[in-house]
Amino acid sequence: MDNITNIKTVISRATKHETLILDHLEFNRRDNEVIMNFVYQKFNPVEVHTAPHVNDPVLMDVETMQEVISYLEEVGIRYEKRKDEFI
Questions:
Q1: How many domains, in total, are found in the chain?
Q2: Source organism's superkingdom (predicted)?
Q3: Could you give the percent of the chain with pLDDT greater than 70?
Q4: In this predicted model, what pLDDT tens digit does every residue of 49-81 receive, in sequence order?
């Protein structure tokens, strides 16, 4: 299984979770590195230490991110892109 297929499988499972409802995916980009996080409903995003982490963040490059975004648009899953700036 290639990386994009694995990522799609993880996303698909997250949308079918019985107790947590996936709100959207968040892509944090720094240069060519991207971290994709799963954001669930009913949890305050400011409280990152108490929010459930059913899925670990997924590391990828920008090209993979574009493929994942195409998939998300195809299946109707919301996402947010951020460009992280580090001091």
A1: 1
A2: Bacteria
A3: 80
A4: 555 556 788 999 999 999 999 999 999 999 999
Q: What token pair was written down for 85?
A: 């700036």
Q: Where are the beta strands (DSSP E) in the chain?
A: 22-30, 33-40, 58-61, 79-83
Contact (CB, 8 A) for 78 and 11: no
Residues 6+ apart with CB under 8 A from 87: none
Task: Tell me the C-alpha distance between 56 and 58, whole Å.
Answer: 6
Can you give the length of the chain in residues?
Answer: 87
Q: Which two tokens stand for residue 12?
A: 């698909």
**Residue 44 Cα to chain centre, angstroms:** 17
